Amino acid sequence: MDFAFLFAEWLGKPVWMWASFISLVITILAFDLGVLHRDNKEIEVSDSLKLSALYISLGLAFGAWVWWYLGAESGMNYLTGFVVEKTLALDNVFVIALIFSFFAVPRLYQHRVLFWGILGVIVLRAIMIGLGAALVTEFAWVLYLFAAFLIGTGLKMLFGEDKEPDLAKNPLINFMRRRFNVTNELHGERFFVRQENPKTGRAALFVTPLFMALVVIEVADVIFAVDSVPAIFAITTDPFIVYTSNIFAILGLRALYFALAAMIHRFEYLKPALAIVLIFIGSKIFMADLLGIEKFPPALSLGITLSIIAAGVVWSLVKTRKSEESA
Fold first, then answer.
1. Per residue in 177-221, pLDDT tens?
2. How much is the pTM?
3. What PANTHER family would the database entry show (predicted)?
């Protein structure tokens, strides 16, 4: 059998590298669902932290392989993208918790929704990153649009009013309720049920609130990707580094969710740090032009990013601890 096609390039890397990565992700997800969470059960904070540590270790180990095989610059770009995407994902936790609360989804079934949500994210991010790579390759000036967008987003996060989304008025939820048969209550872990339609008296297919929660979470991720995809392209334009760092950061979000949801209030001051990171990532494209260099040094970019995020985490933990002690 001729395996020459495995060494053909696709989006800048050999096909075997892409195939190996996808196979690794499928194996991880199969192990997670088929072994670790074969039966529905509530995930405790301690289990969430252990599983998160495993996912973070896998992501860092892959980054170490990228560093060894593709070189230090690719390794540093991967780690920077991984850290930025992981931090951006913290914003998702608040929204996901709000969605689960709105649909009254118990912790017992939240893992199922998040698992299928991750599968959707893997496909959607591939499409968005593929489109982004095509645009950047064809029109180099798109990077400057991404950079300006990141700076604007960061400034809005720093100085804009932070409002909690009102899901009761969400147009997507209202659209689904108008267009589909929707049950008023959950039916265990099922996304769809067949039952009698009170309007016609005939059996019909109904969607459950669990499925609606899944759809809203998927759409929320697309909205968040509008920030994260330009951010990673501002770090590197290598589609392989962009996609792998994105997916490894997201894979662990499901595991980390159950721990973060219980202590999200301790990261109150992380959002300003994240806003500064976005401004920095957007600005460094323009700074490279001003300094007359091809690109901002990856090592310096990684160091500054880690320092800003670490400062935000430490400051959040210190300030919220003082607030709890004085309460």
1. 888 888 888 888 889 988 888 777 778 888 999 999 999 888 888
2. 0.84
3. MEMBRANE BOUND PREDICTED REDOX MODULATOR, THYLAKOID MEMBRANE PROTEIN TERC, CHLOROPLASTIC
Rounded CA separation 13/269 (Å): 39
224-246 residue pLDDT tens: 777 778 888 888 889 999 999 98
- Which sequence spans correspond to the domains of the chain? 4-261
First-to-last CA distance in the chain?
70
The two structure tokens encoding residue 274: 């994240």
Helix or strand or coil: residue 86? Answer: helix
Question: For the stretch 223-261, what's the b/e string if a residue is b when 16 or more beta carbons lie within 10 angstroms of its beta carbon?
Answer: ebbebbbbbbbbbbbbbbbbbbbbbbbbbbbbbbbbbbb
List phi, psi (to 5°) of 60: -70, -35
Distance CA 57, CA 255 (A): 13
**φ/ψ (deg, to 5) at 196:** -70, 130
